[in-house]
Amino acid sequence: MISQWQLRAAFAARLSEMYGREVPAYTTLVDVSREVNEGVLRARGADAERLGSIGRVTSERHGAIRVGTPGELRQVARIFGALGMRPVGFYDLREAAASAVPVVSTAFRPVDGEELARNPFRVFTSLLTPADPRFFDAGLRSRLETFLAGRELFPPELLALADRAEAERELPDAEAERFLQLAVGAFELSTEPIDKAWYETLERVSAVAADIGGVRSTHINHLTPRVLDIDELYRRMTERGIEMIDTIQGPPAWKGPDVLLRQTSFRALAEPRSLRLADGSVTRGALRVRFGEVEARGIALTREGRALYDRLLGLVDRRASRQPDADRGELARAVWEENLPGTERELAARGLGYFTYHVVPGRARDGSRPPGSVGELVEQGWVRAEPLVYEDFLPRSAAGIFQSNLSGEGSRDNEREGAAYDTEWLSGAMGREVLDPFDLYEQQRNESLAAVARQLGTDTP
Ligand code: OOG
Ligand code: NI
C-alpha cells in the first residue's frame, strides 16, 4: 500500500523529473539550490534547519497550474485531494497586477504540521475569469466558454483513482503507479497543434488567457525549489549566464529574522510548438509558457504581522516614488530596520509571528509553579518557541511571477466594473471550502499550547 503522503512525495519527485527533462534550465536551478543549501548548512549548522529539516527543504517544491472553468477546478481539487492537499487562501490577481492577469487563485497544500513535515508539496492554482467584462466582451466570453466546455483535461480513469485515494487515504501499489503516471502525464506540455488565430485573439487580452484558454490541455508552468539563501542563489545563477528578473520579490534582505516569502524567477524560454493555420496546415512556431522560479521561506506572520508587512510595502512604494534613482532594496531594508523587530524573540513577544511552544524538559524540577502567560513561560525557560514556516504565497509577488511569461501587456478596460469573485465564490465553484491560512497557523499554535498546559498541569496559557 502507498499512503497519501507517499503519493504526494512521489508525485512531486516525478513531476520534477519530467520538468527537468523538458526545461533544462530548471535542472540548473535545482543543482544551484542544492549547492547553496549545502553551503548554508555547513556555515550555520543546526540553525539552518530552524524552518524545516534539510530533508524537507531539499525535496520541497511548489508548482503552478492554470485552468479555465469551475468544472476543471473541481477535477483538479480531486487529484490534489488524493495527495492530501486542500485549497488554502484566495488570491485575486486581477487586482494585484499592473498589467492584465484575468485569474483568481488558491493554493493546494497539506494543512497539518506532521503532513507538512513529511512533504509540503503545494500547487498554486489559478482559474480564468471569463465573466470579468474588463477583460472579455460578451462575444469573446461566449467563444471562450464554448471552447473550454469542449475539452477534457483529465482522463476519467485518473479521476476515479483520485477519488479512491482520497477516500481510502492510500492506494495499492499497482493503482498508485497508474495514478502517478496519469497524473504526471496530465501536466506535461501537449504536442497537439495549437489554433494560431484563436491563441492570438486571447493573447491580445492577456498571455495568461491564451495560455489557459488557447489550448486543449493544461500544464505545469513552473516548479519551484526552496533555497536557504536566495541572494547567494541569485548571484550564482547570474554568474552562470541565466538571466533572472531584475529583483527578488517580497521582503528585502536584512539582518533580522526571515519572514514570509522571497522569490525570484527567470523568464520563460521560447519552446517549439506546432501551430495550426486557418487553412488547416500546420507550421512550427515558438511559445514562451514555462519558466523557472526559486524561493526562500521565512516565518509565518500573524494577521497583525501581515498588516504591518502590507503597511511597510506601501511605505517603501511611497519612498521609491519620491526617490526614483534610489535602489529599492536599500530603501526597503531601511524601512524594515526602522519598523520590524530584529529578533525572533521580539517578533513572538509583539504577536507578529506564529510560533509553536514546547515544554523544556527538566525545568519543572525545582518545585516552583509555572507562570500563567506564554511570554513569561518563554522568558523563564519553561517552554521554548519554535517558528512556524510560511506555507503560502504573496499576491503581489505572484503577480510579478505571472509577468515571467507575459510577452505583451495585454489589455484591461478599467472603465468597466469588474466581476465579483471572492473566497466564498471560489469555495462554491469548487465544492470545497477554501481554508483561511491564518486559521491554520493559529490552530497549530493553539494545539501546541494545549499540549504545554497538559504537560505542565496548568490552564492553557
Ligand atoms: C502562478 C504565479 C504565482 C508564485 O509563486 O507566486 C506563483 C502562475 O504563474 O501561474 O506561482
Ligand atoms: Ni511560483
UniProtKB/TrEMBL annotation:
<keyword id="KW-0408">Iron</keyword>
<keyword id="KW-0560">Oxidoreductase</keyword>
<dbReference type="GO" id="GO:0051213">
    <property type="term" value="F:dioxygenase activity"/>
</dbReference>
<dbReference type="InterPro" id="IPR009770">
    <property type="entry name" value="HGLS"/>
</dbReference>
<protein>
    <recommendedName>
        <fullName>2-oxoadipate dioxygenase/decarboxylase</fullName>
        <ecNumber>1.13.11.93</ecNumber>
    </recommendedName>
</protein>
<comment type="similarity">
    <text>Belongs to the 2-oxoadipate dioxygenase/decarboxylase family.</text>
</comment>
<keyword id="KW-0223">Dioxygenase</keyword>
<dbReference type="InterPro" id="IPR047869">
    <property type="entry name" value="YdcJ_bac-like"/>
</dbReference>
<dbReference type="Pfam" id="PF07063">
    <property type="entry name" value="HGLS"/>
</dbReference>
